[in-house]
UniProtKB/TrEMBL annotation:
<dbReference type="GO" id="GO:0019904">
    <property type="term" value="F:protein domain specific binding"/>
</dbReference>
<keyword id="KW-0472">Membrane</keyword>
<keyword id="KW-0206">Cytoskeleton</keyword>
<dbReference type="InterPro" id="IPR037959">
    <property type="entry name" value="PICK1_BAR"/>
</dbReference>
<dbReference type="GO" id="GO:0005543">
    <property type="term" value="F:phospholipid binding"/>
</dbReference>
<keyword id="KW-0963">Cytoplasm</keyword>
<dbReference type="GO" id="GO:0034315">
    <property type="term" value="P:regulation of Arp2/3 complex-mediated actin nucleation"/>
</dbReference>
<feature type="compositionally biased region" description="Acidic residues">
    <location>
        <begin position="353"/>
        <end position="362"/>
    </location>
</feature>
<dbReference type="InterPro" id="IPR036034">
    <property type="entry name" value="PDZ_sf"/>
</dbReference>
<dbReference type="GO" id="GO:0043113">
    <property type="term" value="P:receptor clustering"/>
</dbReference>
<keyword id="KW-0106">Calcium</keyword>
<feature type="domain" description="PDZ">
    <location>
        <begin position="1"/>
        <end position="74"/>
    </location>
</feature>
<dbReference type="GO" id="GO:0005080">
    <property type="term" value="F:protein kinase C binding"/>
</dbReference>
<keyword id="KW-0564">Palmitate</keyword>
<dbReference type="GO" id="GO:0097062">
    <property type="term" value="P:dendritic spine maintenance"/>
</dbReference>
<dbReference type="Pfam" id="PF00595">
    <property type="entry name" value="PDZ"/>
</dbReference>
<dbReference type="GO" id="GO:0003779">
    <property type="term" value="F:actin binding"/>
</dbReference>
Amino acid sequence: MVGISIGGGYPNCPCVYVVQIFDNTPASREGTLESGDEITAVNNKSVKGKTKNEVVKAIQSSPTEVHISYNKLHAEPEQGPSLDIVLKKVKHRIVEHMSSSTADSLGLSRAILCNDSLVKKLQDLERNAELYRGLVVYIQSLMKHYFELFRAHKQLGDVFSEVAVRESLERANHAFNRYGETHRNMAKAGVRMLKILKPILTDLGTFLHKAIPDTELTVQKYADAKFEYLSYCLKVKEMDDEELTFNQLQESLYRVETGNYEYRLVLRCRQLARVKFSKLRADVSVKLDLLDQKHVQDILCQLQRLIAAICRYNDEAATEIRELVGLFPVEMDLKEDVFQYKQNPFQRFNSEERDDHDDDGEPVARVPKNWSSRPRADDTDQNIIDLN
């Protein structure tokens, strides 16, 4: 088995050419024969004027080795990416995010890769990115709330220490001073915990903002090569269908009669696109495997560090709180009238509100105490206010 497929031949096309080179075959390992090359002879016998099936039988009839003579297609790959190929790439990008039923209902023809194992890996990459993004947001929120808690501990410690300084009784002084030191120690333990959490957040951010975007950039290059390759595959299929339609109508196609150069050029471009696609596919597969291994190892290590830091802080805080057992209650010297107020401020506020309204709840004008209702000599009737 040589590992090639051929096309053209009598009676439609004046030449026989290579359509595709299969992987891991003698033709692919030899490396000189490419898609679009014209086959001129098989085992030194000319194939001019022969059909495609006759050329196939001549190749298969060789017992051990087969010698194929060919004319190299000197094509310029830059001529391949026409406007039609560009539009097909755009269409494949759009269809990529559609279901098959939706694309079929819209009448969008496309080429697909069967059993593409990278699809699941790319889905895992997106899921891991969402996981790390959620972890980073959660740890940032956790550190913010812990910081507010530790600041409250520090302020409480300062307040109780100030109370202890002003307390004259020894037992109360000791209790408040110890209580203030406990809050300060808890704040210090919390700061130590935040210093441990910050590198964890940095490592997760590095994985999220550097490792994953670098892999996604490679995936974008792979996707571009994939869509280009699929576009050429679709173009070849459309040209095959066009040729088949003309054959059924028993009509000749000009490009086929003149050697089918345009079709052979598309075949060559498809082969080059396939080589590029295969190379990028291998690179993406390796990067995704390495990234997945790093994810498994890194996420476990970072979560262990996170849990260990929080547990250590909780243990230190619990130890500090246990040492407060027995300090309270304490006796304090207070003035006799310390809890007696001359007037309740809320009661005064409510009474003022009631004065501003009558019994029916309607607002009334408030008259100052030094205001007199008696009119002056120069006042008119319009200046008199009836208070009845």
